[in-house]
Amino acid sequence: MPSTNISHPPSEDDSIRPNKRRRLSRPSNTLRTPTTSSTASDDESSASEIGSPSRVQGDEVEAASTLIPDLTDRVLVINIDWITKSILAEKLLPVEPFIVYTARPIKKPKTQTTPKPARTPITYVKANPDTSSTSGIPKEQYNGILSRAQADAVGVPESTHRRRLGDRSSLHVKTSAPPRLHRTTTSEFEAESDISIPEPPSWVKSHEVYACRRSTFANPPNAAFIAELQKIRKARILTLDEIGERAYATSISSISAYPYYISHPAEILQLPGCDTRIASLWADWRATGDTDDERYIPAARELDNNEDLKILKQFYDIWGVGAETARKFYFTRGWKEMDDVIEFGWNELNRVQQIGLKYYDEFLIGIPRSEVETINQIVLDHARKCRNIPRSAYNTTSDFVSVIVGGYRRGKDKSGDVDLILSHSDENMTHELVLDVVSALEQSGWITHTLTLNTTTSNRGQQTLPYRSAGGGHGFDSLDKGLVVWQDPNFLNPSTGSPTTTNDAAASGIKNPNIHRRVDIIISPWRTVGCAVLGWSGATTFERDIRRWAKKEKQWKFDSSGIRDRATGQTVDLEGPGKTWEEREKLVMEGLGIGWRPPGERWTG
Predict the structure, then answer these.
(1) Are 423 and 526 in contact (CB under 8 A)?
(2) Distance in Å from the first CA to the final CA of the chain
(3) Residues 6 or more apart from 250 whose CB is under 8 A from it?
(4) Which one of 23, 120, 124, 236 has the minimum C-beta count within 10 Å?
């Protein structure tokens, strides 16, 4: 029997006015006031005379409608006190004062069908049925059970449902395949249970849930399985499922840190942040092929083939477009291609999104390490010129330091963008430095577009971000920063083969063929350079867990501008004794209590 949907309570007008109109138009012979003194003969005579309008007076009609509410198009929830007080009064009391909830039934759409419940998958099949618990069942009854089970296993009917990935009005049909049957005999199960599981690392034994307190290396032994989990995680991002995304991120970071190739679900179940759901996905993944290259998670493949997600991912990859904006493009505007955005929505985009769309293909090309190093050196040289650092002071305590952070520092062969931090032991040298450096690079032709130029730290005297700041967020954007588009202005003239620059070639209409790159130029005062480098060097989950650890275990607020005590709001200085930025970063990690780990051990995904 279909259940009544009461998830949408009607408004006061919906629940009262229609009932009033029905009461006025309903013939009086449909109502009768119940009494407690009627005998059987009275009831019989009343029943024969109920068709007479004279049997029910006007006041009785009103009383009956109060005692017996009209339930033809509404559902009422009545406080149990109505029964108690009616018993004490020895008569039925009006229900209206006791109504606590009113709802209106909604008929199920004709396009939807209720699928039959899927059968419970059989995980293990006994090798010898005679020794099983079915030995006490008569053979005829046992065979009948098997016959019915086989009949139910034909498959799950097609079901029509709404799109799961957005509030679209259109419907589509999705065929649900019956669950796969993993057949394992008793002897095979016993053999699996005898598999030698490696001695778990100490962080597994202690159930360490913080990714920042365990080492995670690049290219983990379970990279193929992790890559499939990352697809599901991306789908959670695109569907705005923040809780689901964090759950998968936690599981991925834990599996990434596990130093052994997983060969049994029991290994997954012992990892912090992993549960039977992840173990089940691993079993599905393992069953799809004989090698890691062949294996896949069926649920992840389904997401790969989902047309909605394909379109959302395309928009999400535009620089400056997040998941919410991508969904707005598709589900609200109805755009499906880049050309749709350009033709119909160009003026609605902010400057960052316009540049991200213009150089979409170029920004997807990875930046080799050698090119990252070249860009860093050019920025450092311009910073030196802006503050008149003599060549004799290069690489001394009187010089700037420029630290390449992000994926490069963890060891990536190719980076999506270039993140670098400039600092100087004299804080007067870093005050509003970002303005001068970006301006100099623009004049030299290296920067083609400046998208963001923040002097937040300089504006507050280069102090740590206040704990109660309205613009707190994650904290790393509170530093002075220039977000720019970079292009090497030097190239060969295709006509003459001689070296030329963007400015010289522009007069003759020659276009610079060099790829545009994304570069973040970050300025940090020396007193918190260790926090800045730490805050920009770890993978996403590593950085997220540093903030969680500082908050829950230390009652501190950590971000790349420094550390503050949440109770007092005072600055916590952990890196003061450090002479170099490397020493200062190490002091911060040790002072936080997470322990020092080189950047190459911060690959949490």
Answers:
(1) yes
(2) 47
(3) 209, 211, 272, 273, 541
(4) 120
What's the gap between Cα 302 and its chain centre? 18
DSSP secondary structure letter of residue 198: P
Q: How far apart are CA 491 and CA 512, in angstroms?
A: 7
What is the CATH superfamily name and number for domain 195-304?
DNA polymerase beta, N-terminal domain-like (1.10.150.110)
Q: From residue 337, how far is each of 164, 340, 341, 350, 354 by CA, in Å?
A: 21, 5, 7, 18, 15
Helix axes 433-444, 369-386, angle to 10 degrees: 110
The DSSP element (H or E) to which 339 belongs, if any, is helix 338-345
Paired tokens of 543: 């950085």
Query: 3-state DSSP helix/strand/coil percent for the chain, to nearest 5?
Result: 45, 10, 40
Q: Per this entry, what is the length of the chain?
A: 605
Residue in 491, 486, 497 with CA at minimum distance from that of residue 513: 491
For tokens 């707005």, what's the residue? 328
DSSP state of 50: T
How far is CA 80 from each of CA 67, 86, 95, 102, 232, rounded to the nearest angstrom?
Answer: 15, 10, 11, 15, 47
Average of per-residue pLDDT across 373-387: 98
Q: Which CATH class is domain 307-363?
A: mainly alpha
CB count in 10 Å sphere of residue 216: 27
According to CATH, the superfamily of the domain at 371-601 is: Beta Polymerase, domain 2 (3.30.460.10)
Q: How far apart are CA 85 and CA 538, in angstroms?
A: 66
Please name the residues in contact with 486: beta carbons below 8 A apart, sequence gap of 6 or more.
375, 418, 446, 447, 448, 516, 517, 518, 519
Q: CB pairs under 8 A, 24+ apart, for 47-52? A: none
Distance of CA 148 to the CA centre of its chain: 42
Q: State the Cα–Cα distance between residues 470 and 460, nearest whole angstrom.
A: 14
Using CA atoms, how far apart are residues 73 and 68, in angstroms rounded to an integer?
14
Query: Are residues 100 and 158 in contact, defined by beta-carbon separation less than 8 angstroms?
Result: no
Compute the C-alpha angle 457/211/271, nearest 5°.
165
Pairing state between β 562-565 and 556-559: antiparallel
Greater model confidence, 135 or 317: 317
Taking the model in full, what pTM does it have?
A: 0.69
334 exposure class (CB count in 10 Å sphere: 0-12, 13-18, 19+): exposed
- CB under 8 Å to 158, separation ≥6 — which residues? 173, 174, 175, 176
Q: Are 526 and 425 in contact (CB under 8 A)?
A: yes
The DSSP H or E segment spanning 564 is strand 562-565
Q: Do domains 307-363 and 371-601 have the same CATH topology?
A: no
141 or 389, higher pLDDT: 389
- Express each pLDDT in 313-343 by its tens digit: 999 999 999 999 999 999 999 999 999 999 9
Fill in the DSSP letter of residue 602. B
Query: Does residue 355 or residue 170 have the better pLDDT?
Result: 355
pLDDT in tens, 524-553: 999 999 999 999 999 999 999 999 999 999
- DSSP, collapsed to helix, strand or coil, labels residue 232 as helix
Residue type, 375: I
pLDDT of res. 67 = 66
Element (H, E) at 419: strand 418-423
What are the residue boundaries of the structural domains of the chain, listed by start? 12-103, 114-129+143-194, 195-304, 307-363, 371-601
User: What is the token pair recorded at 489?
Assistant: 């202005």
